[in-house]
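Side project, low priority. Logging it here so it doesn't get lost.
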Amino acid sequence: MKTPAKGYGLVELMVAMAIGLIIVLGVTQIFISAKNTFMSQNAASTMQEDARYVLSRMVQELRMVGMQGCIAQGTTSFTDASNGLSFTAATINPIIYTSVTSGGATSNVLTLVTGDVGANGGVPTWTIVSDCLTTAKAYTGTAAANASAGELAFPIRKVIYTFANSQLSTTVNGTTSVLINGVKTFNVSFGMATAASPYAVQSYTAAPALADYGNIRSVRISMILTDPNSRVRDQPFNVVASLRNRLR
C-alpha cells in the first residue's frame, strides 16, 4: 500500500504566491498613497507658512508707513539733515506702487517708508532724533539721541518689495533678499478716502493717481502661491492693512 505524498503541490504554491503578491501590492499602494498625502500636506503647510510670514511682515510695515516718531506735534521744529535731503523726498509719498518693464519682463514694485524696529532690524535708512517738544532732526543711517536732553531716536527705513520671475524679494539699504518663491500672482490695491470723508475708506483701486496717494488709508494684498512640483493646487492668500498714521 502506497503512502500518500505530503507537502504542497504546484497549484497550492501558485495560489499562495498570487495571494502574497496581492497583499504586497496592496501594502505598497497604501504606502505610496500615504507618502503622497504626506508630501501634499507638507507642501500645503510650507506654502501657508511662507505666506503667513511674508504677509505678517508686510502688514506690520504697512501699519507703520508714514511714522515719523513724535515730530507731527505741530509745535516741533523739523530739520532734514539727511544726505541730499533724501528723507524729505522719500516722505512726500511714503507708499508707492509701480510697474517697471525691462527687457520684456514686468516687475511690480511696492516702496514703503516705514518705522523700523531699531537694532533688531539692522541699520535704518534714516533716524529721527527729537525731544518731542521743540526740535526734531532727520539723519541718514544711525544717529544717537542725547538722553540727558530728553531726546529719543526713531529709526526709519525704506523697504522695496519687488515681484518678478515668480519671486517676491525685498531691498533695504541696497541689499536684496528673496522672501518667497513660487509666487504666481501678486496684486496690491488701495483703500481710498475722499475729501468729504477723509478717514474712511470709500473704494479700492489698483492704480491710484500719484496726486491721490495722500488719500490712501488701507492696503489690500492678494497673492497666489503655486507648488513647483504640482503636489497641491494653487493657494490664494489675502490680507488688508490699515495705515495707522493716516487714521486719526
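Brief comment: The helical segments are 10-63, 86-91.
Revisit when time allows.
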